[in-house]
Design goal:
mainly alpha
C-alpha cells in the first residue's frame, strides 16, 4: 500500500470517527467524484508520496494541531492547483455536457 492510498484510508477513518452517517455518505460520494483528480495529482505533485507520508506520521503521533495544519496545507495546495487539474481532467474526459 502506498502512502497516498494510506492517506485516503486515514481521511475515511477521520470521517467515520465523527459518527455522522450523513457526513460519511457525503464524503464517500465526493471522494468518488474526486478520484480522477487524485490520479492526476500524481503527475502534478512530484512529492505526493512524501507529502502523504508526512501527514501519516503526524496522525500516528496524534499531533492534532500539526495534523490540522498539515491537512490545511494539503487541501490549500490542491485548491491552488484546481485550474490545472480541471484542464487536465477535461482533456481526459472531454468537456462537461450541459444539463
Amino acid at each position: 500500500m502506498t502512502a497516498t492510498s494510506s492517506l485516503q484510508a486515514l481521511f475515511e477513518r477521520l470521517v467515520r470517527r465523527s459518527g455522522n452517517r450523513l457526513l460519511l455518505s457525503a464524503y464517500s460520494w465526493v471522494n468518488g467524484q474526486l478520484r480522477i483528480l487524485r490520479d492526476l495529482e500524481t503527475g502534478l505533485f512530484d512529492d505526493h508520496e512524501a507529502e502523504a507520508q508526512a501527514l501519516l506520521t503526524l496522525a500516528g503521533r496524534e499531533a492534532t494541531a500539526a495534523l490540522r495544519q498539515g491537512l490545511k496545507t494539503y487541501h490549500d495546495r490542491r485548491i491552488q492547483a484546481a485550474p490545472i487539474l480541471a484542464l487536465e481532467a477535461a482533456a481526459q474526459t472531454g468537456p462537461p455536457r450541459p444539463s
